[in-house]
Amino acid sequence: MKREMPPVHPGEILKEMYIEPLGIGISDFSAVLGVGRRTISLIINGHSGVSAEMALRLSKALNTSPELWMNMQRDFDLWNAGKKIELKGIRNIIKAA
């Protein structure tokens, strides 16, 4: 069964569930993570994804797991890739047992 609604970008979750409720600005949050303000801005605005390194930083700062962030990013990326790529012409070369 294909998912019709896109998964939420992890930056949206970061903004709405962490940054805004904590009342912390992007500059302050960036400083906590040890990254530039632009890096966080790109992520929360959906213009950049969460890398493995960023997932580690977020998990430490927000008391979550890095897998949480990586899984959200993976789901977002796979859904978007599935909307762009045509798989009909690819045939299965592995025979079922």
Key structural traits:
97 residues, elongated, mainly alpha, 0% strand
Q: What's this, in brief?
A:
By secondary structure, this protein is mainly alpha-helical. It is 61% helix and 0% strand.
SSE map:
Blueprint: H1 10-22, H2 26-33, H3 37-44, H4 52-62, H5 66-84
If you had to describe this structure to a student in words, what would you say it looks like?
- The protein is mainly alpha-helical and 97 residues long.
- The chain has five helices and no strands.
- It has helices at residues 10-22, 26-33, 37-44, 52-62, 66-84.
- The mean pLDDT is 94.
Unreliable stretches covering 5 or more consecutive residues: none
How many DSSP E strands?
Answer: 0
Structural class: mainly alpha
Gross morphology is elongated
